[in-house]
Amino acid sequence: xxxxxxxxxxxxxxxxxALKRQLLREGVLKEITKRRFYExxxxxxxxxxxxxxxxxxxxxxxxxxx
Length: 66
Fold this sequence. Notes:
3 helices; 67% helix
């Protein structure tokens, strides 16, 4: 993870929004919330299954039919 956000004209709020957007894009925020508490292996498997099902259904929704 290598992200550098520059602050121009003392506009800290804009830089903070850019940083949050960058962290969200890289998946860091999701990783932090995931690691906040211990997750049982069975719950992890269930969550992974759920995420893959959502990902597949989303891919089918946006698939272009030619």
